[in-house]
Amino acid sequence: MNSKYEVIIGLEVHSQIKTKTKIFCNCSTEFHCKPNTNICPVCTGQPGVLPVLNKHAVELIVRTGLALDCTINKKSVFARKQYFYPDLPKNYQISQYELPFCEHGKININVNGETKSIGITRIHLEEDAGKLIHDIGSRQLDYSLADYNRTGVPLMEIVSEPDMRSPEDAAAYLTALKNLIEYVEASDCNMEEGKFRCDANISIRPFGQKEFGTKAELKNMNSISGVQEALAYEVQRQIEVVESGGRVIQETRTWDANEKVTKSMRSKENAHDYRYFPDPDLVPVNLDDEFIDNIKKNIPELPEARRARLINNLGLSEYDTDIIISDKALADYYETALKAAQDSKDAAKLVANWIITELLGKLNKSDLTIKQSPISPENIGKLVLLISKGTISGKIAKTIFEDMFKDNKDPEVIVKEKGLVQISDEGAIIKVCQEAIDENAKIVADYKSGKKSAIGALVGAVMKKSKGKANPQMVNKTLTELLSK
User: Fold this and answer.
1) Local confidence band at 465 (pLDDT 50, 70, 90 cut-offs)
2) What pLDDT digit, counting tens, does each position of 305-343 carry?
3) Of 72, 202, 220, 394, which one's alpha carbon is 20 to 30 angstroms from that of 10?
4) SS3 of the chain
5) Where are the chain's structural domains?
């Protein structure tokens, strides 16, 4: 990037709150339903209806605010945000303008080994809009279909300070924020289902200039990598405009993921364009100290606290820990697996190794998430326990792992069915080791002439003869003893 210009980025994240019913009515928030089946007169904006606030949505936004070190406003007010769009049946959105639930928070991010604090301006509660469908499968429509199932789903908008200075900062911020929201169980943050969405405001200014440059807002980015790509393109676009003597205009732009470019959509709206005013159907929300304190007491363990516990109490490396805590579902999977392997030696490290190296590698190749893993955490724990007890060798364990991945079969069952129990009987080990020595005179001669690495070939011969079942530690020890005679 051009070193003459400083990049200024602020993000607006919309995260659907994890409630069973919508924010102002009793309609279900379930995602995979037929269009326009989870709707009622309230969420479709019929005349004469009155909204009733979902208390659990308030609890979860306050929990999120506390986790982000925000000030919780004891008095909060809902407002009507006026704009016309087909997926907004009332032609206004119930949102918050003044007095949101949460303000003035922060979250730490790590970029290239440097820790930065990104300010949170506000977190406010609002209702989601519906969804327009512009095509069905591969058939492009010359009209749009409206699905109002999503209308009225509780949504929290988290607005950052313009503290990010690169697309990498923005990606790190989104990753940390998504992780924290999942940890406090306020949202599923499923980006494919639109439950965690982001708009970005970006501008450039010459280094040393205090005033911000004219910003553009970027929309329609459906992944964290997509946000990073779109911001990187927009930085270059704005620099080229300025360098060529042009002027960046304030506008809303869309990200075209296929062409890898941003395109102009419309001029950027300001707050006055929405004509905010207090919603007359909703009274101000007053939160008392007891309500806030009860939420504070029940905040689940946050990523940084979990990180410290895994390192200090379990002795995991920082590298392994950072991978494990990067996803709440992965961290939960790890701890469940660890309970199943708790009797094994070095269980914490062994379980981490199998999950990070073997399982995540296999899931990535299969394009699966940890939530979709064909192997249960309990069975990973059992596999580690079998290795630790000497029932199977590490080599055999990898074969068993492949079978487990196919059908999530219990590793103990696989071992019994295929007769894979490791040979640890001393007499049997001595017998097969002696056979390997007798059959490999040249290798034995090399070893006895001082080439100690030759023992590796003998170990391989023993393992081949035993079909991988011989205990490797016992094989090494036995061969050394027999060759010293």
Assistant:
1) confident
2) 999 999 999 999 999 999 999 999 999 999 999 999 986
3) 72
4) CCCCEEEEEEEEEEEECCCCECCCCCCECCCCCCCCCCCCCCCCCCCCCCCCCCHHHHHHHHHHHHHCCCEECCEECCEEEECCCCCCCCCEEEECCCCCCEEEEEEEEEECCEEEEEEEEEEEEEECCCEEEEEECCEEEEEEEEECCCCCCEEEEEEECCCECCHHHHHHHHHHHHHHHHHCCCCCCCCCCCCEEEEEEEEEEECCCCCCCCCEEEEEECCHHHHHHHHHHHHHHHHHHHHCCCCCCCEEEEEECCCCEEEEEEECCCHHHHCCEECCCCCCEECCHHHHHHHHHCCCCCHHHHHHHHHHHHCCCHHHHHHHHCCHHHHHHHHHHHHHCCCCCCHHHHHHHHHHHHHHHHHHHCCCCHHHCCCCHHHHHHHHHHHHCCCCCHHHHHHHHHHHHHHCCCHHHHHHHHCCCCECCHHHHHHHHHHHHHHCHHHHHHHHCCCHHHHHHHHHHHHHHCCCCECHHHHHHHHHHHHCC
5) 5-293, 303-418, 426-483
